[in-house]
Design a protein that fits this description.
Structural class: mainly beta
Largest sheet: 4 strands, mixed
Distance between the termini: 89 Å
Number of strands: 14
Helix content: under 10%
Number of helices: 0
Strand content: 35-45%
Radius of gyration: 27 Å
Shape: rod-shaped
């Protein structure tokens, strides 16, 4: 050409495809307030961008396949992960997380306390091995209303709650030093 002659310059170019969608997010989808761990299977050469809806904060692990989330608000929250490589974002994956203070209550009963049947059809039995350590028992519905309260002035080893409507209840045992809470589900 009019500008002169030169040797051809050959350069190799690598074209990277977006990373593939991550596998399912491992971790609890029904949680109470507080810290939970989530992860996906790691892909070589991929970074991960995690996002949570307004009800949580990522405490550690951003950029990796594993994070720690501190859930701070109740409700249905969304956890989202997007795989990234040097050029592109891949397809995101989401997990809906039900954050509810009721789900944070302990699942396992202590020795000496039996609640049955659970789930129930409207009649729930409570058996206490040592009822003298408790002062009162309350049954609270899912909107926080006290449905029934029993003062344990006299010794009762077996207490029955009857005619309960469908829903989730909290059974509270209380004394001066302690409050124990247990979930009871009624399904008719």
């Amino acid at each position: 050409n009019a500008c002169g002659k030169s040797e051809a310059i050959i350069k190799s170019v690598n074209v990277s495809a977006p990373p593939s969608q991550p596998g399912p997010i491992s971790g609890s989808a029904i949680v109470g307030l507080g810290v939970q761990n989530y992860e996906v299977t790691n892909q070589a050469g991929v970074n991960y961008r995690w996002e949570v809806s307004g009800g949580g904060i990522i405490q550690q692990g951003q950029g990796t396949n594993r994070i720690v989330v501190n859930w701070q608000s109740e409700g249905i929250q969304t956890l989202k992960i997007t795989p990234q490589n040097e050029c592109n974002d891949g397809t995101s994956r989401t997990l809906s997380v039900n954050v509810n203070i009721i789900t944070a209550l302990p699942e396992e009963l202590e020795t000496g306390i039996k609640i049955y049947p659970n789930p129930s059809n409207g009649k729930v039995n409570l058996e206490l091995k040592d009822p003298t350590i408790w002062e009162s028992i309350s049954l609270i519905n899912s909107i926080g209303q006290e449905v029934q309260k029993i003062e344990l002035g006299q010794i009762k080893q077996r207490i029955q709650f009857e005619n309960l409507t469908n829903g989730l209840y909290i059974l509270q045992l209380q004394n001066k030093n302690e409050l124990k809470q247990f979930k009871v589900l009624v399904r008719k």
